Amino acid sequence: MIKGTTKLLGVIGYPVEHSLSPAMHNAAISHLGADFVYLPFPVKPGDLKAALAGFAAIDLRGFSITIPHKQAVLPLLSEVSPIARSIGAVNTVYRTEKGWCGTNTDVEGFLAPLHPPPTPPCQGGAKDAISPLERGNTAVESSPPPYQARGGSETEAVESSPPPYQARGGSDWSQKVAVILGNGGAARAVVAGCAQLGCAEIHVVGRNEQNLAEFKQSWVNSPMPVQNLQVQAWDNLSRLISQADLLVNTTPVGMHPQGEKSPVAAAALDRISAGAIVYDLIYTPNPTQFLKDSQLRGARTIDGLEMLVQQGAAALKIWLDTESVPVDVMRQALRQHLGLD
Question: Catalytic residue positions?
Answer without folding.
Answer: 70
